[in-house]
Design a protein that fits this description.
The protein is mainly β. Helix content is 4%, strand content 35%. It is built from one helix and eight strands. The strands form two sheets. A six-stranded antiparallel barrel has the order 2-5-4-3-7-8. A hairpin with a 2-residue loop joins β7 and β8. The radius of gyration is 26 Å and the shape is elongated. The N and C termini lie far apart (64 Å). The relative contact order is 0.23.
């Protein structure tokens, strides 16, 4: 999960809207190997008025209505942070008119120089389990009133021996 306060690299699937759906009259853009497709975008529930971002897409199939793509999202100046997670939808616009939908599958934060920001992996101690030792006889503690209810013994559970 990444908050878009700076540029983000994203990978996902783009679906271009047909002209009947209000999309591009010329159909899906043809990628140019010298230039990326650039447009504006926003992440719902924001709108083009309060959540505008820039988007640059590359590595998508020419003329395909649905295709994998890679891109960069750049937040608009003065816009508040937006949460970008796998599964979210980015509405691609030309002006304020939606022309495509990008379903995000992978998100990477970018440093100011464009390199990916890699989060440090915590250094957890390695736990070695001895396979010759049998597991404990009692179940592990679980903080659950239901588990405690079924595993505890109450005075009313005891029957008087006759």
């Amino acid at each position: 999960m990444v908050m878009m306060t700076g540029s983000l690299a994203v990978r996902g699937t783009v679906v271009w809207l047909t002209p009947q759906q209000g999309g591009r009259v010329s159909g899906p853009p043809d990628p140019d190997y010298d230039y990326d497709y650039t447009a504006t975008a926003y992440l719902p529930p924001r709108t083009p008025d309060d959540g505008q971002a820039g988007v640059a897409l590359r590595r998508f199939a020419p003329g395909a209505w649905r295709t994998p793509a890679e891109g960069i999202l750049v937040p608009g100046k003065g816009n508040r942070a937006q949460q970008v997670i796998p599964g979210c939808i980015v509405v691609i616009t030309e002006g304020v008119r939606p022309v495509g939908l990008l379903t995000v599958e992978e998100v990477t934060a970018l440093a100011d120089d464009g390199t990916p920001v890699v989060a440090a992996v915590p250094d957890y101690p390695v736990v070695q389990y001895d396979t010759d030792v049998p597991p404990p006889a009692e179940p592990p503690y679980r903080h659950s009133t239901a588990a405690a209810r079924w595993t505890s013994t109450h005075g009313s559970d005891l029957q008087l021996a006759e």
